[in-house]
Automatic annotation (TrEMBL):
GO terms assigned for molecular function: translation elongation factor activity
NCBIfam families referenced in this protein's UniProt entry, alphabetically: EF-Tu, PRK00049.1, PRK12735.1, PRK12736.1
UniProt cross-references to Pfam families, sorted A to Z: GTP_EFTU, GTP_EFTU_D2, GTP_EFTU_D3
Domain Tr-type G: 9-205
SUPFAM superfamilies: EF-Tu/eEF-1alpha/eIF2-gamma C-terminal domain, P-loop containing nucleoside triphosphate hydrolases, Translation proteins
Keywords: Elongation factor, GTP-binding, Hydrolase, Magnesium, Nucleotide-binding, Protein biosynthesis
Organism whose genome encodes this protein: Streptomyces roseicoloratus
InterPro entries in the record: EF-Tu_GTP-bd, EF-Tu_GTPase, EFTu-like_2, G_TR_CS, P-loop_NTPase, T_Tr_GTP-bd_dom, Transl_B-barrel_sf, Transl_elong_EF1A/Init_IF2_C
The protein, known as: Elongation factor Tu
Keyword match GTP-binding: yes
Length: 391
C-alpha cells in the first residue's frame, strides 16, 4: 500500500521564474539534490534535470503537461515547486494564478543580467499577487564579483520598480550547475538560498473554512478507476466522499480519492497540490480550465470590470493601441477564453497604459473581485489585470 501523506509541516507552493536558459530547471534539480543529501530535511527525493524538463516526451504520449511539480522538504516546511519548460507555459500556469504561488524564486543569470522575460515575469507575478520573491543570482560560478554586483543592483531596481521593495529582497549568489555536480562551495550556496526562502516567504493564510474550489489544471483517464483531475486547491477543504460540482462540464459527482504527489490523503485543503479521483465522469467531459467546487457555492459569470495594465512594446506587449471591440484571449485561473473588451468613454488604450475595461467572456466562469488574469494575443502577453467587479 502507498504511504499516506502526513501533514507534519506547513505546506507552501513556490516556483522558479525568469528568462529562458538562466538556469531555472538546473536549479530546481540542484535543490532536490542538495536536500536529498542533507539527511535532516525529511524525505526529499532527488529529481534529475531530465525528469523535470520532460515536456516533449509527455507531449508525444498525448498528455498535456506543461509544468513540472517537484516536492521537497526543508527542516521547517514542505514545498511543492513548479518549474516551467517555456515562457508560454509560465504565462499559462503562474501568471494566471493557476499555480497559486506563495512565493517565487526569480532566477537571474549573473552572466546575462535582466532579460525581457525576467522583467515580464516580475511584472506579472506582482499583478497576480505573488507577494514574496527571492532572487537566485545564478551562474555565479562564471561571473566575477564586479559583474555579480552590477546585476544584483539591476535586479533590486527592477523589483523596486514593481513594488517588491528590492532593497529587502534576499539576493543569493548560486550555481545550480556546480551544486548539481556536488561542489561543496556551491552546494552551500543552494542551502543559503533555501534558508532565504524558508525565512523570507511567510506561511500564507489559507482559506480552509471557505467552500471548496479547485481550478482543473490537467485531466487523466485511468482505465478501470475513472477520471482524475489535478490542480492546486484555491480554497476550502475536500475529502473522500464529498459531492462536488464540475463547472464547465455542468455535472456533479463524488470524490472517490484524494492524493498529493502519489500519496493518498484523507482531506486536501487550500494550498495543496492534489489529484482528485471523480466517480462516473464520462471521458472527455472534464477539461483544463474547468473548476471543481462545492455544489451551489459559486455561480459562473461572464461579464466583469477590471483594472488592466497593457504591456509596453519594450515589455513584449503590443506596439499599437487597442479599441473597444478588441477580442483577445483571457487567461483566468487555468481557463483560456476569448473576451470582448469595452473601454468605455475613452474608447482606446495604448501600450503602457493602465485602464479600466468591461469584459464579456465567451464562456461563463467563476469570477470574483481580486481575481488576477493575463491577456494574450498571438502567443504573447499583452496585458495583465485584476477583476474589480462582477456584473
Ligand atoms: P532554464 O531554461 O532557465 O530552465 O535553464 P536551464 O536550467 O535549462 O539551463 C540553461 C543552461 O545554462 C544549461 O546549459 C545549463 O547547464 C546552464 N546552467 C544552468 N545553471 C548554471 C550555473 O549555475 N552555472 C553555469 N555556468 N551554467 C549553468
Ligand atoms: Mg527549464
Amino acid at each position: 500500500p502507498k504511504q499516506a501523506y502526513a501533514r507534519t509541516k506547513p505546506h507552501l507552493n513556490i516556483g522558479t521564474m525568469g528568462h529562458v536558459d538562466h538556469g531555472k530547471t538546473t536549479l530546481t534539480a540542484a535543490i532536490t539534490k542538495v536536500l536529498s543529501e542533507r539527511g535532516t530535511g525529511g524525505p526529499t527525493t532527488y529529481v534529475p534535470f531530465d525528469r523535470i524538463d520532460r515536456a516533449p516526451e509527455e507531449a508525444r504520449r498525448g498528455i498535456t503537461i506543461n509544468a513540472a511539480h517537484v516536492e521537497y522538504e526543508t527542516d521547517t516546511r514542505h514545498y511543492a515547486h513548479v518549474d516551467m519548460p517555456g515562457h508560454a507555459d509560465y504565462i499559462k500556469n503562474m501568471v494566471t494564478g493557476a499555480a497559486q504561488l506563495d512565493g517565487a524564486i526569480l532566477v537571474v543569470s549573473a552572466l546575462d543580467g535582466i532579460m525581457p522575460q525576467t522583467a515580464e515575469h516580475v511584472l506579472l507575478a506582482r499583478q497576480v499577487g505573488v507577494d514574496h520573491v527571492v532572487v537566485a543570482l545564478n551562474k555565479a560560478d562564471g561571473a566575477d564579483d564586479e559583474l555579480s554586483d552590477l546585476v544584483e543592483l539591476e535586479v533590486r531596481e527592477l523589483l523596486t520598480a514593481h513594488g517588491y521593495g528590492g532593497d529587502a529582497v534576499p539576493v543569493v549568489r548560486v550555481s545550480g550547475l556546480r551544486a548539481l555536480e556536488g561542489d561543496p562551495r556551491w552546494t552551500a550556496s543552494v542551502e543559503a538560498l533555501l534558508d532565504a526562502v524558508d525565512t523570507y516567504v511567510p506561511v500564507p493564510v489559507r482559506y480552509v473554512e471557505a467552500p471548496f474550489l479547485m481550478p482543473v489544471e490537467s485531466v487523466l483517464t485511468i482505465t478501470g478507476r475513472g477520471t482524475v483531475v489535478t490542480g492546486a486547491v484555491e480554497r476550502g477543504t475536500v475529502r473522500v466522499g464529498d459531492r462536488v460540482a464540475v463547472l464547465g462540464a455542468e455535472t456533479e459527482t463524488v470524490v472517490t480519492g484524494v492524493e498529493t504527489f502519489g500519496k493518498p490523503m484523507e482531506s486536501a485543503q487550500a494550498g495543496d497540490n492534489v489529484a482528485l479521483l471523480l466517480r462516473g465522469v464520462p471521458r472527455g467531459t472534464v477539461r483544463r480550465g474547468h473548476v471543481v467546487a462545492a455544489p451551489d457555492s459559486v455561480a459562473p459569470r461572464s461579464r466583469f470590470t477590471a483594472r488592466v495594465y497593457l504591456l509596453s512594446a519594450r515589455e513584449g506587449g503590443r506596439s499599437t493601441a487597442v479599441a473597444t471591440g478588441y477580442r483577445p484571449q483571457f487567461y483566468l485561473r487555468t481557463a483560456d477564453v476569448v473576451g470582448h473588451v469595452d473601454l468605455g468613454d475613452a474608447g482606446v488604450a495604448r501600450p503602457g497604459d493602465t485602464v479600466t475595461m468591461t469584459v464579456d467572456l465567451g464562456r461563463a466562469l467563476p469570477l470574483e473581485p481580486g481575481l488576477g488574469f493575463a491577456i494574450r494575443e498571438g502567443g504573447r502577453t499583452v496585458g495583465a489585470g485584476t477583476v474589480t467587479e462582477v456584473l
